[in-house]
Amino acid sequence: MELLAQWGLLDEVLATGCPPLTELSFTAPGIRVEGTVPADGDARMVCAPRRYALDEVLARGAVRAGAEFRQGVSVTGLHWEDGAVAGVTCRASDGRPSVERARLVIGADGRRSTVARLVGAPYTRWDGRLTRAWYTYWSGVDGASLRLFLGKGVGGTAIPTHDGLTLINVQFSVDHPLGARSERDRLYLDLLARAAPELREAVAEGRREDRLYCCGDLPNFFRRPTGPGWALVGDAAHHKDPLGAQGIADAFEQAALLDQCLADGQCDGRRGGLGDRERTAAALARYATALESRFAAPYEENLRHARLAESEQQTAGLRVALDDPPFREGFLRTLSGAPGKQNEVS
Ligand SMILES: Cc1cc2nc3c(=O)[nH]c(=O)nc-3n(C[C@H](O)[C@H](O)[C@H](O)COP(=O)(O)OP(=O)(O)OC[C@H]3O[C@@H](n4cnc5c(N)ncnc54)[C@H](O)[C@@H]3O)c2cc1C
To answer: What is the mean pLDDT of residues 143-169?
Structure first.
C-alpha cells in the first residue's frame, strides 16, 4: 500500500471500487487477535483488488511514467549478443513475430517465468509445494476486515473485494486426500468449517458468485535473479506459498529494489548508463544480494506456517506471547505486510 501511494497509484486503485480495510483479525485454536492495520507511512490500510482492476492501474501508471505497453504480446525467445541478453523475440496477438533490442531484459513474468527458463536461471533454493489454495467469491458475507485463520492442517483468508464480494481462500496440505472432482465444493466448505466456523456459518447465509478456483501449483523457491543483461522480479525470482498473502507486496518491493540498485549504480536507462556493462553488472549483483537478504527470513517464516503443522505447544506459546503489547503490535504488522519488520515475530 505504501508503494502504491509513493507511485501515486493508491487513489486510482481505491477508485476502482476496492474497499480499503483498516481492521484485521487472526484466529487459531484458542486465539483471537483483532486490531487496526499498523503502518509506518500514510497508507494505514490493506485492500484486495481483483487483478483485472489492479493490473490496469499498474499498466496505466507505467505508461504515464514513460513505458510503452503492448497488450497481448508474448515473449517467446531471447536475443543474445556476446554472451549477454540483448533483447527479446515476441509474438503479437495476431501471430506477428518481432525482435526488440534492450540493454536490460527484466523477467517480471510470474512463477513459470519464460525469461528464467530461457536464461537457465537455476533454483538457489527449492522447498517444493506444501499447500493447495482453493478460493471463490461470496456475496452476503458481512465484515469489513481482513480475516486470517488457521486451524488443524488448514489455513486461509477472507477479504472483501469489489462489488460487495468477499474472497474466501482455504489452504490445506498437498497430502490431503482430494476425493472425486464432484466432491470439491463440499471439501472446500468442510475445510472452511474446520478452520473458521464463523465464516462457514456466514457463507451458509450468503451466496457463492463464482466457480471454485483450485490452485495446486504453489512452489516455494528462490531463483538466481540476475545475469548478463537480465534480471528477474516478483514470482519469477522468488515464489512463496500464498498463505501469508504477501506475493504482490513482495513483487512491488522487488521492483522498487531493482530500480533503486540501478539508480544507485547510475544505470538509469534514459541517461544511457545501462550501456556500461560493468556498472550494470555491479548494480545487478547488489540487487541479487539485497533480494536474498530482504526476503530470506520472511520466506522461512512463511514456509513454517505453510507446513500447517503448528503444534499445540506452539499455539499455546503464541497465545501467551500475544498478551505482550509490543509482540502483539509486531504480530499485526506481520499479518498486514507492513514494510520492514516482517520477521520480528519469527
Ligand atoms: C491462489 C493464490 C492466492 C494468492 N493470494 C495473494 C494475496 O492475497 N495477496 C498477495 O499479495 N498475493 C497473493 N498471491 C500471490 C500473487 O498473486 C503473486 O505473488 C503476484 O501476482 C506476483 O506478481 P508477478 O508480477 O511477479 O507475477 P504475475 O502476477 O504472475 O504476473 C506475471 C505476468 O507476466 C505475464 N507473462 C507470463 N509469461 C509471459 C510471456 N512469455 N510474455 C509476456 N508476458 C508474460 C503474465 O501474463 C502475467 O501478466 C496469490 C497467489 C495465488 C496463486
So the answer is: 93
